[in-house]
Design a protein that fits this description.
about 15% strand, alpha/beta, elongated
């Protein structure tokens, strides 16, 4: 392919990485220097990509799970000729607005598959990508979908617990096109990994159903041979590549000193001399650059052949494939939900919102059966997000569209990120709301990178009853609402559930939490022409006469607000009820819209079986709040609502206190 | 020991568990029925405990990691004669105020070692208990500290990622007195575990440095033999006990149906007949009860011998041991911090609060060198929580008082729970604030059960700079403040740091987060007689004249508020600055105190490099907020503060806009 010594190609990565970190006086040179040989072999011999078309659907995916080694990725993008990644960008490493931030940001820089940095996320996201590939290949055929997912992972990625969830899933699902290259350099920030770890990773991965072996990660021939073997395996593969962190730096290589800071002028010079690289910063010899550019266009032919194959697919199937990877919803979805809402008006559904969510899902899954990809972390029968028509996905049934993720909330949410990023699916995953705590790092990255995933989070308050405080969310609504770009919906009845599902599925630039009840609720809405949930809140019940008070509530507490409103009306106190399915969406409305919804009644009361955080923005500092001020307790739900004073009577009294 | 057939003893557990779940119409009978033989062997032959003295320091610990099987534990407490656990309590299973909540709550029911239910927590907490045992034994000798930690874990515990972090630590530390009995029943909520899992747990644990074997978990002789072997091992041991979930239930045993709901009258009757148990609810044959009571007092002699041994320890050492396990701080602590603060007034320390925390730690560690137990998730040099005098803990250096937890934030925080619960130490653990997301389930349980642990969370805002949005917390202060009983301190200078450390260490009924900066800050305080941080907030700078505005700020933004105050004073606008090291503690003050601190100036501005959630309670809906409205970005810190408009100029303008 090229006559250039591949070690010189690897050294180009090393040189650029050293220079960029040195210029920024900040960053991580050690990984790019140690893993340069691995990257060179992968990108010049194996990775199927076309640098001119970084989003080509059938490309191989490369995930730099060890995101701190971002200069490896930026160097590769520049060397292989990514149009945006100029030398100037490398010189702007870690500066405001550059395409080269401290950690790779896929929403910011083209050619990057996912956002990494928080350890363990990349490898777990990659499992979702490989899962999506397997599913989509089974549906559209290997002529259209046939690619590998490669991961470069560090010690830290494998120490993080989420990696166990991820590798257990990948092994169980036999995701043989997932290949993890483990940069086994034996060094972490605190020093040799031996001060904190003695896990035999090869044995560990084998115990999870993987193929695994150890090689010399500085030996390009060994790397070639190992990847070749991995591609033939019927299991996912771990290749533990023994490398030297900061390879080439004469004094600091192999030590923690080269992990997370610039080498310093002297060591940098010595390293370059040692490696035989020009001392000129950011310089790459012409022949080396040419060889890299050739590697970058190596996949162009494969892409063109793929373009031809998809042309042969038939226009309907092709349009379907292209729509799916664009995350565009089918027209049938809106129709199905409209009909579903109409049906609810005719036959009200007075059930738990997890159950009305199930009913909405039946309508949705009928409209988009192959792309609506649900799953649960072992609470399928409680989360109610499995459509009757959906069959379980397994290694042998790749067309199944319900995923049993096991008791792995974090792994599930990370995998959903990968499924979304891969394209082709609208993933949703379910557990109890309280267990969002287990998945927060993956949920935060979804919000940061704008992944359109849906979290079906049932048992959303003390209303779950007897399981007690370990299972009762009280702070979780607040904690989730606080995440930028996270949408949290807590619908109050079956109509709102359908509306929130519609908003969630049409939100392809960020994640959505649906907080749903365990306990039954009445259907409160009597019209369904519009979707008022899109504004976060709306007046559900108007006051009879000039309103003296407004009761704001979400989810299961809207029923309480409506009951209180009725009692107040009977006492001659006209009161409004505002349903607030999404508090943060209400607060994000334009000033006039928000003010109109909130209104100006002298008394404002908020009712939510959760902590007060956030509600002051609606009801004011002096507003009355009826909710939780502590953890919950174990008892039947009705006893708990009474015990914690979240009742219509409490709401009535709060208003009376203020009105009189 | 007893002539009663041990299978009848196990059946007593089964009968009580079935009856209690049946009466509550809620709960999990499957695990207690399947694991009854394991529990019988452990409690009658091995577990060193005295039911009359459930808090005896040298008792063996038993952790029911599979907390949903709580009736196993409650049955055992009743059968062994725990004074509080009457038959009536079993009949009140899962009812408000009973000692028998849905999941075990150690803060509520005596004889329970830790709160479990969220899967993976128990096994990980147990690692901390075993670690504390090893450390304390090395310090006080095996005559005083010599006990085992036993765990009963389920499939779910081992699927959760945190279990990997925990077992990797336990294997590395060679915690050979930790014995995990895995209730390998092959069933989870969704059905056979084989639908979601194919990990070979024995191989997995071996890869982490454990001894591990499989046995028949319904064979009491096999269980006895395996625990006997485990006690002799020089490694922690996993005993995978193959059991039948719902053992004894003729139709439902071995299926998911018996996991999480009552058997139903017919199946219950059939199960009792099958097992040869009386059909009378909650009945235990006299001889069986007597045998169980004997098991409960079996350890009384051992305890008395231990009491004698501690009597021989010497009064000073004995007092020290008893003070330590009571979580009482030494008098030297207050003195040391007082002297430290005096020193700061004489020689101001204008450094990052992570560095002034390091200075405070030097003073603290000198006062309590053996009980101040710090550690970091591989960011020791960045978190600055290692005292110079502290040496690293390892299997060979058990007197080391700094723990390299590895890149395992969740495992670290769960282990700290266990360390605290075990007694003898004031544990603190460190990472970047953003990575509290990884540890939230363990932090929440710490808050729920009132564990006095300290989280040293550095790099607490966009002020960390170049690492970018994946590493920059913006919502984390809000998300942590929302957790009931969690204390979050964000000190603004070296004096506040010392004060917050003092409050944190003296808080032994709940956890404390210390949010600390990466970037340098000036020492702002000029007096240190009292500790105003105890009220959450206080006036740091008084207005010159009648105040027209108040600037509220925390941590690194107090410096900005002080600069703005000066500029406003120059423009003739008298302004106060209120430092708010703990927003939620301010809000928890008595009404009058809170009102006095907040004051009544017409203009209120809050400055915090984080999201607004929570601040409306101080500044009102119409207050000005200068902070973050999105994720951060990668750039030097100064550029970011300017880019996101968190500057003294912005604060001045916000006030001017309102004043004019």
């Amino acid at each position: 392919m090229t006559q250039v010594d591949p070690t010189r190609m690897a050294n180009a990565i090393r040189g650029l990485s050293m220079d960029a970190v040195e210029k920024a006086k900040s960053g991580h040179p050690g990984l790019p220097m140690g893993a340069a040989d691995i990257a060179t072999v992968l990108f010049t011999q194996f990775l199927k990509f076309d640098t001119q078309a970084p989003a080509w659907p059938d490309r191989d995916r490369f995930v730099l799970s060890a995101g701190h080694g971002s200069m490896l990725l930026y160097s590769l993008l520049f060397l292989t000729g990514n149009p945006d990644m100029t030398l100037d960008q490398l010189k702007q490493f870690r500066q405001l607005g550059s395409l080269t931030p401290g950690h790779p940001e896929n929403f910011h820089t083209k050619g990057i598959e996912t956002t990494t940095g928080p350890l363990g996320q990349g490898i777990s996201t990659a499992v979702g990508m490989a899962l999506a590939e397997k599913m989509l290949a089974a549906e559209f055929g290997k002529k259209i979908v046939d690619h590998h997912t490669y991961v470069l992972a560090s010690d830290g990625d494998l120490m993080e617990g989420v990696s166990q969830e991820a590798i257990a899933m990948a092994g169980h699902w036999k995701l043989n096109k997932l290949i993890v290259l483990y940069d086994d350099n034996g060094i972490s920030i605190d020093g040799p990994t031996s001060i904190a770890d003695s896990v035999d990773q090869v044995k560990r991965f084998k115990s999870a159903g993987w193929a695994a072996e150890k090689i010399d990660g500085q030996d390009q021939a060994a790397i070639t041979a190992a990847i070749t073997r991995a591609k033939k395996s019927n299991k996912p593969t771990l290749i533990a590549c023994r490398t030297t962190i900061g390879y080439g730096a004469p004094h600091k290589a192999g030590t923690a000193k080269v992990h997370g800071e610039a080498l310093g002028a002297d060591e940098l010079k010595a390293a370059k001399e040692n490696l035989g690289i020009s001392l000129e910063p950011f310089s790459v010899p012409d022949d080396v650059l040419q060889a890299w550019r050739a590697a970058g266009s190596r996949g162009a032919a494969a892409r063109q052949e793929w373009e031809a194959r998809i042309g042969e697919l038939g226009s309907r199937k092709r349009a379907e494939f292209e729509r799916r990877v664009r995350h565009e919803r089918p027209a049938s979805l809106a129709k199905a939900l409209k009909a579903h809402k109409k049906g609810l008006l005719e036959n009200p559904l007075n059930v738990a919102t997890r159950k009305s969510s199930e009913a909405a899902i039946e309508a949705i899954a009928a409209a988009m059966p192959m792309e609506f990809l649900a799953g649960s972390a072992d609470l399928t029968g409680s989360n109610n997000n499995k459509a009757k028509s959906a069959t379980a996905f397994s290694a042998k049934t790749p067309k199944g569209r319900f995923v049993h993720y096991g008791i792995r909330e974090h792994g599930m949410c990370a995998a959903m990120n990968g499924i979304f990023l891969h394209g082709g699916f609208a993933p949703n995953g379910a557990t109890f709301l309280v267990f969002t705590d287990y998945a927060r790092p993956a949920m935060r990255i979804a919000a940061l990178m704008g992944a359109g995933v849906v979290y079906v989070m049932t048992h959303d308050s003390i209303g779950l009853g007897e399981d007690g405080p370990t299972h009762q969310p009280v702070e979780h609504l607040a904690a989730l609402r606080a995440i930028p770009n996270m949408r949290v919906f807590r619908p109050c009845d079956s109509i709102e559930v359908a509306e929130c599902w519609e908003l969630a599925l049409n939100r392809v630039d960020g994640p959505t939490v649906l907080a749903l009840t365990r306990q039954n609720l009445p259907q409160l809405r009597s019209s369904a022409n519009e979707n008022p949930c899109q504004h976060g809140a709306y007046e559900l019940v108007a006051a009879q006469g000039e309103a003296k008070a407004t009761l704001f509530a979400s989810g299961s507490e809207v029923e309480i607000a409506v009951a209180a409103q009725k009692q107040l009306a009977e006492r001659g106190i006209p009161t409004r009820v505002v349903s607030v399915p999404s508090l943060e969406l209400l607060l994000a409305q334009p000033e006039a819209k928000r003010a109109a919804i909130i209104g100006k009644t002298p008394v404002k009361v908020a009712i939510e079986a959760a902590v007060r955080w956030g509600w002051d923005a609606v009801i004011g500092q002096d507003g009355e709040f009826i909710g939780m001020h502590s953890f919950g307790a174990s008892a039947p739900a009705k006893d708990l609502y009474k015990h914690f004073g979240i009742t219509a009577e409490a709401a009535v009294n709060a208003v009376l206190k203020r009105v009189s």
